[in-house]
Amino acid sequence: MTKPCLAVGSLGGTITMTSGARGRGVTPSLTVADLLAAVPALADSVELQTRTLAASPGASLGFTDVFAALDWARGAVDNGAVGAVLVQGTDTLEETSYLLDLHWDREQPLVLTGAMRSPRQAGADGPANILAASAVATTPSSRGLGVLVTINDEVHSPTRIRKADTTALDAFTSAPFGPLARVLEGNVTYANKPRRWAPIPRPTTERVPRVALLETSLGDDGTLLRMACDAGYDGVVISGFGAGHVPATVAEVVSTAVEHGPVLLASRTGRGSVLTHTYGFAGSEEDLLSRGVMSAGWLDGRKARILLWSLLATGSTPGRIREEVTIRGGRPGGPDQN
To answer: Are residues 60 and 158 in the same domain?
Structure first.
C-alpha cells in the first residue's frame, strides 16, 4: 500500500533550539531533518516532504515569514501532500495560526505545533508534539477544518487558542469552549469542530497596514490612542476592561479615533465576549459602540488585530470590514463562529 505524503516545515522556535555559544541560553539551530530524526517512527507511516523555512525564535517572526509558510504549505498540498505540519516558536503561535487560518484556502489541513521545552531539557516535548501533529494532519477527519494547532496531545482552533503560561507543558488553552480534539495512541478524536468562514484572499506586499493594539489600564487617559491616530495608524484594536469598557477620558478620544480608521473593541480578559447593551455609562460597551467602534465579540485583542490587519491588507472597504468582524467575532450568546 502506498504511504501518504506529509509535508513538514519549520520556522524555528524552542523546538529547534540548542545551547548557544559560551554558555548562553538556547538558540534556534536544528533543521527539519534534525527534528524528524527524533521521531523515527513517522517515516514508517508516511512519505516525508520537508523544508526548513527559517531558524527564528517565535518572537522574531513577522507577516512576511507567515506568508512564506503559507505559500510553502499551499504548494506542498497542491503537489500531493495529504496535509502539512508547520513547526514554530510558541511565543506567537496564537497569532500566526489565526493569520494562516484566515487565508488558508485548501481542504487539506495545515497543522501548527511547537514545544515548551528545548531538545536539551529533560522531558523535551518536541518529538511527541510533531508525532501528534502528524496524526492530526493525516487523519481524514481533519479535512476541511482549515488550520489547526496541536500541542500537548490537544487540538485547538486558531480562533480560540491562547498561551496562558510561560513554561508549562499545558501552556495553551482554548477558553471558554475548550480544545477541539484529543490525540490518544495516534488516534484523533474530535469532540467539536470549528465553523469555517470563506478564506480571505492572500494579501500582496503592496499594502502593509499598521494596526495598533492598545490595552486599557488603570488611569488611562487616552494619550496612547491619540498618539496612534497622530502617527497615522490604519486601525486600532482596544483591549478594554471586562466586557468592553474604558475610562470616560478614553471614550472621548475614541470619538476622534473612529474618524481616522476602524476601531475594534475586545476584552483584555482573554475569555468571554464583549457585551452590547448591558452597561450604559461613559466608556461602556454601549457608549463605545454608539461612537462607531466595532465589537470584536468573542475574539481577543490579538486575534482582532490580526483580522483587522488582514482585511486592511486586502483593501477591504469599511462596510466589508464591519461585516467580516461581525460574523467572525460573533455575538454574545452565539459562539458558533468558533
So the answer is: yes
Q: Would you tell me the crossing angle of helices 93-103 and 63-78 to the nearest 10 degrees?
A: 50
The Cα 159–Cα 179 span in angstroms is 11
- Going by pLDDT thresholds of 50, 70 and 90, the confidence category of residue 193 is confident
For cell 523555512, the residue is: 53
Taking the C-alpha atoms of residue 113 and residue 183, their distance in angstroms, rounded to an integer, is: 13
Q: Is 310 within 8 Å of 302 (Cβ atoms)?
A: no
CB contact set of 210 (below 8 Å; sequence gap of 6+)? 231, 232, 233, 234
Is the pLDDT reported for residue 1 higher than 50?
yes
What are phi and psi for residue 330, nearest 5 degrees?
75, -175
User: How many domains does the chain fold into?
Assistant: 2
Q: pLDDT grade, residue 331 (50/70/90)?
A: low
Residue 120 burial by CB count (10 A; 0-12/13-18/19+): exposed, middle or buried? exposed
Q: Is the pLDDT of residue 161 over 80?
A: yes
Predicted structure pTM score: 0.95
Q: What is the mean pLDDT of the chain?
A: 94
Report the alpha-carbon distance of residue 243 to residue 57 in Å, rounded: 33
Residues in the chain: 338
CATH of the domain at 129: 3.40.50.1170
Number of alpha helices (DSSP H) and beta strands (DSSP E) in the chain: 10, 16
